[in-house]
From TrEMBL, chain A:
Biased composition (Low complexity): 113-148
Chain intervals for the UniProt region annotation (Disordered): 109-153, 733-760, 779-804
Pfam families linked: DUF5682
Domain of life: Bacteria
Family annotation (InterPro entries): DUF5682 (IPR043737), LolB (IPR050458)
Protein's name according to its UniProt entry: Uncharacterized protein
Native organism: Streptomyces spiramenti
Amino acid sequence: MTDRPLLLGVRHHGPGSARSVRAALEAHRPAVVLVEGPPEADDIVSLAADPAMSPPVALLAHAVNDSGRSAFWPLAAFSPEWVAIRWALDHDVPVRFVDLPAAHSLAPRDEAAPGAADAPAPESEGAPAADADGAEEPAGNDTAADPADPADHRLRRDPLAALAAAAGHDDPERWWEDVVEHRAGGDDPVAPFAAVEEAMTELRAAGPATGDDRDLVREAHMRLRLREAVKEFGAGSVAVVCGAWHVPALRERRTVAADRALLRGLPKVRTEITWVPWTHRRLGRAHGYGAGIESPGWYGHLYSAADRPVARWMTKVAGLLRDEGVPISSAHVIEAVRLAETLAAMRGRPLAGLGETIDAVRAVMCDGADVPLDLVVDRLVVGDVLGEVPDSAPAVPLQRDLTAQQRRLRLKPEAEERALDLDLRKDNDAARSRLLYRLRLLGVPWATPAGGTSTGTFRESWRLAWEPELAVRVAESGIWGTTVESAAAARARADADAADSLAALTTLAELCLLAGLGEALPTVMGALADRAALDTDVAGLAAALPALVRSARYGDVRSTGTEELTRVAHGLAERVCVGLPAACTGLDDDGAAAMRHHVESTHAAIALLDEDGLRDRWRGTLRRLARRDTVPAVLRGRAARFLLDEGVLAEDEADRLIGLELSPAVPPARAAGWIEGFLAGGGLLLVHDERLLGLIDAWLAAVPADSFTDVLPLLRRSFGSFEPGVRRSVGELVRRSPGAETGGSATAPTPGFGDRTDPERADAALPVLRLLLGPEFPGHDAARAVPPATEHPSPADDPIGAPA
Amino acid sequence: MTAETTGQPVLRPHAEDAFAEELSALAAADDRPRPARWNLSPWAVATYLLGGTLPDGTVITPKYVGPRRIVEVAVTTLATDRALLLLGVPGTAKTWVSEHLAAAVSGDSTLIVQGTAGTSEEAIRYGWNYAQLLAKGPSREAMVAGPVMRAMNDGMIARVEELTRIPADVQDTLITILSEKTLPIPELNDEVQAVRGFNLIATANNRDKGVNELSSALRRRFNTVVLPLPASPDAEVEIVSRRVDQLGRSLQLPAAPDAIDEIRRVVTVFRELRDGVTTDGRTKVKSPSGTLSTAEAISVVTNGLALAAHFGDGVLRPADVAAGIQGAVVRDPAADSLVWQEYLETVVRERDGWSDFYRAARDAASGRPYGAAA
């Protein structure tokens, strides 16, 4: 054994591998430890021993001139690599990273290269979760990403799946757990590695899964570094911790020249590397397009539990459920452990694994329900652990990006508060505004909008004050991404997933628009659509609609975003159409007033959306509102008015409706409410339509004296809202109502009017006309010249308010 | 008993009779350790329910189509000393699974207590032969053992159907039986102790929550397994069309050609409303208050077939199922009809090839034309 380097093929993030690695290192005590990872990190690896460093953490490499081009190597306490690093640092043994330098893997590549995106991530091979490539990077952050087909990828690159299938297991993860992770500590700590190596050798020899070109390059580099170490320390004193898949390649004998040839001419980019804090949740990353490891909490438990992992785990679960108020007794714990172990026996597994324990917890502790189980999965199986990185670690790229932008946009971080006015028509100011909104999204409140309601649409006022702790906030935000834009987008997406109200989501959508985060918008919109679909509060939907429609119509987002916006707005409008009539019944006065506001804003929004089908449906909804007796009168009046204004209410239909609403059987207060709603759009209608005026006049005259005082305030409110000119015109018209004059003529074309033009009365109208149209109204003399009896201007086509 | 004496073929044989061949083939092939008084090993019981092929080529038909995990947990529970509670909405094969489990484990699925509001303690424990009681006083001979007591005596699986229908005080009779495995007979100052192999399977409808909620003391004696609705649309379509076919034959309806499209549609509507999300996973929808189980889908399609056969041209059309679907969906006239309308307008209207159904459903939903401009 002493003439060969110790090659420890591991499963990334496998706690069993980690234990075995530690045992093997303890037994062999190598003089140098080589770890799969970017060699640039050799200089900062000593930070891992810093007491202020606590996993999960990640090595983050990024291109100097482009912070968006980056890659993460996450390490948890139970990662074999971390264990190896810590062992080496504790024993004063040098640690070297042997993977292909990030300078190469981050360099822009030929786009045709297969799977270019996943080069930097060490998770790409050996691990059963092989489709995790690049998933550790926040989605949307890796601008170098090319969408490699994960299914194809797995087929090509998941050797463990092949091994597990050969062993008759359908689940490679479980197979690895059974064979390696759950191995009950054999005598020879190296034996499992030998077995894995053998298996991998067979697999690499047999299968088409020979990896791709990039793998060959990486392995060539590893071999070169290994050779260096062997030369320096002697073969027997070198230990290598790398993905199981690479072990046979490292064992292989190749000439230095051949390896060098492979590495020649690789593109290169200047990179920087640092440690960043990581979280279990991000290790898990059950969301996004890739799955890292699904159960970091469980793995952490397996690694840290001294003995009886299942019993200890069940006790943890019981503790969690008890804290949440679920009564769990010790008897439950006992039964759960028994069930898990019996299940494992029945399934032919050596020890209860995560699947068995979850099944047992569900059946015994959660009464078969998934809701409390989800809590267990979220809090324990994934877990809330947040890593820490010492202050001495190099600055995170997010901070650099922010500094660069601050310099470019000439926005100095200054401690004293100052005001900033932006003119959004200027490019620089628009960019500043976007930056400030993005920082707000990230929870870095450097700037607060100065509350000026008077500002126009192109003006923005801010108050800026840079507090020292904002730097900490920026550092914390480093987990979201490497540039302000990508981090803000990632944060917005996460917030959208977590948002619990429609209002929060519309606000978020608006912020995304203001911050120019078109890429985050689809997620936010998706969440918004989902929330809207489940929201039973029509008022809430209606309140959310106008802002959304405005954004969709006028928003300055990229075109992809507005389509999505329009789609969601449509969906929202449809739901409002369906739900509104029911939501409008049984309202009290205040409720009706609030709902009237919603109906009005929805009407305006749907007009803006400008889609025929939708408008028809909205009209249908208005029709139902106008006709339904249980809807408050003011809303019915409003709906009727909208229909009339839209011109979809036939003339006689309008008359009928008004007659119906104002018939004597209707309590006067209700009719007055209806009138209020109907006239809310302005009184010009009454000036135009004398028939209408006549109907209302007749009703008013018929209100019994004792009810009149009741309806008076309502009527006053309705008519009081008219403009003075309109009010006066209506007054004039009413004063000359038929009852007061000729005693009514049977041939009168319209109630309230004589059968011919009365010059005196026409004269009387002139002051009003003058008032309306200004003193220099040219028609002044012409109006006098009209021969009295030659024309019968019907009020409907006599456009008093519309001079020709 | 009566069926045997009359010699007529029974309408529905017990599981252990209907699948006697499979059970004996399994027993022959089964070399794994069996718990005391079990006819088969847990592995073989799971195979019996889930189906498979034995080394000798015997094909075991699947009795339960669903997640393997559920059957494994259920069988394993019976092998421990905890009782098994099968929960699920109506029509999820709870009783079916319980019958087959009992048949496979004990070879007898008839030790059953049907839970109703009128189920008494005697039905669970024991009753008396009053003639004997009067003649000889309380004695073992005068006792009439209930199914649970017999199961305890013989080390068999007892079944309790619709546990939550049983009044709470009667339910609690089970506590001593399940925790101490003994049934006291205070009249005789005696008891019946359960023999190894005894266990109990209860079924309950989790839509009936709150009817007679289990006391936590009793609940603690059960491991709970929730039987889900069919996981994939294809599986559900398969189940529905098979059952519809069988039912149609027994009702002597003419077979409808091309009914599969409408069946698929019914299943799709039911699934989408039940799951609260469209099958493409892109749009969420509200769920109505009804169960919308597979069993209801079957009855909607059967109804539609009857409509088509007796009043239509024999071909199952959207209009034949639209009213049925609406009836199944709209249980609460106010809330559910909103849900249904919203679903029609936001999902069905825009779906390709669904315009017939949309019109039919809209006609069914309201006599008034909705949204038509004047």
